[in-house]
Amino acid sequence: MGAMRVRTALAAAVQGLALALLALIGSVTLFVLTVVSIVLIPIGVGVFTTPAVLGLVRAHAGRRRLLAARWAALRIPAAYRPFPVDPRGGITGRVERCSLLLKDPAVRRDVQWLLVDMTAGAVVAVLAPGLILHGVFGLLVAAGLWIPLADAENGPYWYAFVPVEGWGTGTLAGLLGLALIAVALWANTALVRTHFALVGAVLRPGREGELEERIGRLTETRHDALDTSAAELRRIERDLHDGAQARLVAMGMNLGAIEALVEKDPARAKELIAKARESSAEALTELRDLVRGIHPPVLAERGLGDAVRALALRLPVRTEVDVELAGRTGAPVESAAYFAVSEALTNAVKHAGAERIWVDITHAEGSLRIAVTDDGRGGATVGGSSASDSASGDGSASDSGSGSGTGLSGIERRLGTFDGVLAVSSPAGGPTMVTMEIPCELF
Amino acid sequence: MRVVLAEDLFLLRDGLVRLLEAYDFEILAAVESGPELTEALAELKPDVAVVDVRLPPSHTDEGLQCALAARRARPGLPVLVLSQHVEQLYARELLADGNGGVGYLLKDRVFDADQFIDAVRRVAGGGTAMDPQVISQLLSRRSQDRPMGKLTPREREVMELVAQGRSNAAIAERLVVTERAVAKHTSNIFGKLDLPVSDDDNRRVLAVLAYLDRG
Fold first, then answer.
1. Under 8 Å between Cβ of A426 and A380
2. Does residue A296 carry a pLDDT above 60?
3. Which residues form the HTH luxR-type domain (chain B) (predicted)?
4. CB pairs under 8 A between A and B
5. Which of A292, A295, A301, A306 to mutate to test the interface with B (most CBs of B within 10 A)?
6. Does the beta-carbon distance from B137 to A301 stay under 8 Å?
7. Structure pTM?
8. How many domains is chain A built from?
9. Would you say B181 and B106 are in contact if contact means Cβ atoms under 8 Å apart?
10. In chain B, which stretches have pLDDT less than 50?
11. How confident is the model at residue A402 (pLDDT cuts 50, 70, 90)?
């Protein structure tokens, strides 16, 4: 316990020293550069330097956010406004970029924070190593260091408020040093935490910023959801139009012909009856496939677990499905999760060349968690096409190239509507692990 | 032969009743929901039940659940399950008790009246009638396995028909060969897959299905 406390206090002292250096060197320099750069805007130079300097400031603040998470388990979210997707070139683009940056409340908070960091932040941080160093110095004074420090000309040596002029007062200084060390043991971690609390207080986006971020996200996912469902409806319409509908028309025509032929040419009529029956069977097959694509029957009948099991049974690859769900989720989540798993499985079979696949489905801490792991060749990414696809490069990019990349980003968009997230770990050579998490309740 | 029928859509129920009556089946009851089906199966003791997977009131797999429960209460009660879609998962559950007397077919199979009636009779007699789609899915899953690779294309064809639950006579007629040729093929298949040989048609089907469903 005691050794532990000493170790954490010393660690906090080192952290405090590092933070103080960052604040006194980094923040001071950046603040000066920022002020100079902004002052230079009217004469033009600042327009070019400001974005660069603010970029450095952002990196500086980002590092402190990272340290806050690592050293004090304090999460300080960043809420910078995104830049327009297609920035304009030339001078106008530069000016626009510069003014956008300066109008961003998050950037303004960064600059304010530089000021706080180089003053209050630095003081709080430097206290942690300072208490220990000064305490140790007090012990040294008591041990005899007072002799060269205090002499007849300058009078006593003042250790804090103790005038040291002999062994007696030297011992007093030593006791005070011990007290300082005791305080350090007790307060060092709190000091570092206070520093980060200060960082958080200035950098954390206000309620307005949080709401703004949320609205941005909602707008984006709503667009995606509407796009997806519109595309789905278009696909269903086209499939019905070209498939079942056309077959029913053909059947109706055949029946008309049969009616006319049944007495004149019974043999021919019989032939047409067979054809009509064939058309109806084909129409049914097409409708069945279509239904499976809209909402698989097993999903409606049994829920996510058995629907994924049934899906796994259709795959040509050995697939283990492990489901631990104490109930069913809402139908929309169920459906999104099912199609996400389906897409991940398709990728594993088609693109990764997997020989075995594992699917794990659980519900914990208010989220549905799904992991799809395969032993394939890996290299899948969310954004673009997978490494394995580009490596094969056989020119048939229309099929394989568009597959895995757009598939995964499609899943991501689809899950986004439910505030769900997707993560892909897929080093070249495999294995690939696709994890999904969707916040939802079980019923 | 006495039948209990469960199908919630009036048009289909009506069509099935007419079809079965045309082939001299006696319809004891034609019901439209799960609870009614359970009651009819317990009280009327039919020779065979023809059941739609999806039934009210839950509109989930209520028909299948009722059929499975009835078979637990009366092992071997012949049940032919009809569905708009076939799933290996459901086929596996129906076959799990190893008692035979089960059928699982797509509703489309009703179009071919002779084949459908044949399937009902087979199930009523304690045999098996699995939809060709279920069997072809199973076969394609197992096609990379080494023992399966040793089968000739003809033997595969025979195996597919055996798995659907057809007798040697029916297979011979279908493939336009003699019954003796079919018997030879089946004994080859059983040898290559290392399955226990049995003269009983039904045991034979279940062995093949269990083999296909393994792993």
1. yes
2. yes
3. 144-214
4. 46
5. A301
6. no
7. 0.67
8. 3
9. no
10. none
11. very low
Interface pTM, i.e. ipTM = 0.85
For residue B102, the one-letter residue type is V
Is the pLDDT assigned to residue A391 strictly greater than 70? no
From chain B, the residues in CB contact with A306 under 8 A are 89
Among A311, A392, A368, A367, CA closest to A344: A311
CB proximity under 8 Å: A 258-287 to B: 277, 280-281, 284-285
CB-based contact, A134 to chain B, within 8 Å: no
Q: What is the mean pLDDT of residues A339-365?
A: 91
Cβ pair A318:B215 closer than 8 A: yes
- Domain extent for A341: 297-439
Least confident interval from A77-81, A265-269, B109-113:
A77-81
A435 dihedral zone (left: phi>0; alpha: psi -120 to 50; beta): beta
Residues 6+ apart with CB under 8 A from B19: B110, B113, B116, B117
| B153 touches A: beta carbon within 8 Å | no
Q: Do B89 and A306 touch (CB under 8 A)?
A: yes
pLDDT at A299: 94
Pick from B87, B107, B144: which is nearest to A298 by CB? B87
A382 min Cα distance to partner chain B (Å) = 29
Residue % of chain A over a pLDDT of 70: 92
pLDDT band for A401, please (50, 70, 90 cuts).
Answer: very low
CB contact under 8 A, A310 and B89: yes
Distance CA B48, CA B25 (A): 10
Which of B95, B114, B130 is the last residue before a domain boundary?
Answer: B130
| CB pair distance less than 8 Å for B144 and A316 | yes
- Name which of B38, B47, B2 is nearest B20 in CA terms: B2
Helix (H) or strand (E) holding B83: strand B79-83
Both A172 and A46 in one domain: the answer is yes
pLDDT tens for A1-20 read: 578 888 888 888 999 999 99
Residue A217 lies in a domain: no
